[in-house]
């Protein structure tokens, strides 16, 4: 299903600043981001496909086809499919295509075995991460509109699903609020891999957005975010793009320090309280996960 996009020039305001996104400039610099239709190669399957009595929490994890070792470790640790304090937790790995044909065949086998791969036919790249945001929203809207909550993150971080569910129960009552590490009006970079040209975006600041390292949002926001994604030009930085969608959808943020998107020195009790910690590779993941599960710490 590929509903027609209605991307156009938009003016958005957050009360502090106004942001003008000229669709003609986006077509000039990033035409593929604006024209891509979300064509699926692999889709997940399993218990989440039908409504259950338990609310569904999807752990959506951005991953590259080449990183099969990371996915294998995550399935054995924090991304295992299971019940957590009344929530059914289901991992879905968000992937695109790689150049290696053998790796793509291995992905098919991995998908058949685990049923947790969602793959589109665009090529993995830094700017194409924004397509994972847009296409995931489209897939959710049409296939799992009843999802209760979603966690978005990466395959190189430690996540505590028990702390996430506890956080949802304590702070997740608002149907219009997204949760994560808030980046308020970050400065636009004109250099490095995050560079954005003045022609594309002549302003100096972005609207507020949550760090792409990991954040939470309720299923009630999916339709609003998806509708915004049909109208807003696809910005070539995924976390900024999601910030624009959030602004267009008139949603709010809740900042939470326990989203450690810049990493955290290892301390078992701090890790037990954390929601996520960025920068944990597969060589340490199992050890950390097991130690944190066993640790007895005061709240």
UniProtKB/TrEMBL annotation:
One GO biological process term: protein O-linked glycosylation
InterPro entries linked to this entry: Glyco_trans_31
EC number(s) from the headed UniProt entry: 2.4.1.-
Subcellular location: Golgi apparatus membrane
Protein topology in the membrane: Single-pass type II membrane protein
One Gene Ontology CC term in the entry: Golgi membrane
Example GO molecular function: protein N-acetylglucosaminyltransferase activity
EC class name: transferase
Coiled coil: none
Keyword list, A-Z: Glycoprotein, Glycosyltransferase, Golgi apparatus, Lipid metabolism, Membrane, Signal-anchor, Transferase, Transmembrane, Transmembrane helix
This protein's record includes keyword Membrane: yes
Keyword set includes Hydrolase: no
Pathway assignment: Protein modification; protein glycosylation
Protein origin, superkingdom: Eukaryota
Similarity comment: family membership: Belongs to the glycosyltransferase 31 family.
Name of the protein in its database record: Hexosyltransferase
Protein species of origin: Pelobates cultripes (Western spadefoot toad)
């Amino acid at each position: 299903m590929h509903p027609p996009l209605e991307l156009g020039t938009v003016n958005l305001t957050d009360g502090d600043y106004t942001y003008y996104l000229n669709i003609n400039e986006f077509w000039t610099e990033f035409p593929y981001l604006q024209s891509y239709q979300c064509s699926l190669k692999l889709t997940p399957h399993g218990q989440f496909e039908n409504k259950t009595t338990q609310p569904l929490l999807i752990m959506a994890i951005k991953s590259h086809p080449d990183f099969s070792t990371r996915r294998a470790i995550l399935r054995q640790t924090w991304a295992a499919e299971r019940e957590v304090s009344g929530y059914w937790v289901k991992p879905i790995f968000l992937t695109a295509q790689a150049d290696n044909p053998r790796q793509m065949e291995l992905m098919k086998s991995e998908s058949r075995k685990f049923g947790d791969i969602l793959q589109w036919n665009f090529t993995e790249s830094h700017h194409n991460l924004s397509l994972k945001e847009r296409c995931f929203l489209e897939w959710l809207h049409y296939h799992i509109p009843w999802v209760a909550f979603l966690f978005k993150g990466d395959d190189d971080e430690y996540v505590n699903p028990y702390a996430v569910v506890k956080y949802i129960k304590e702070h997740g009552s608002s149907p219009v609020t997204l949760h994560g590490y808030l980046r308020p009006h970050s400065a636009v970079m004109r250099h490095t891999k995050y560079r954005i040209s003045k022609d594309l975006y002549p302003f100096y600041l972005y609207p507020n957005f949550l760090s792409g390292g990991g954040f939470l949002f309720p299923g009630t926001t999916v339709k609003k975010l998806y509708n915004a994604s049909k109208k807003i030009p696809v910005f070539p930085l995924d976390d900024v793009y999601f910030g624009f969608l959030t602004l267009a959808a008139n949603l709010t943020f809740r900042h939470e320090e326990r989203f450690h998107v810049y990493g955290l020195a290892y301390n078992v009790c701090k890790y037990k309280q954390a929601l996520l910690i960025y920068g944990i590779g597969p060589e340490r993941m199992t050890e950390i996960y097991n130690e944190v599960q066993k640790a007895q710490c005061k709240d």
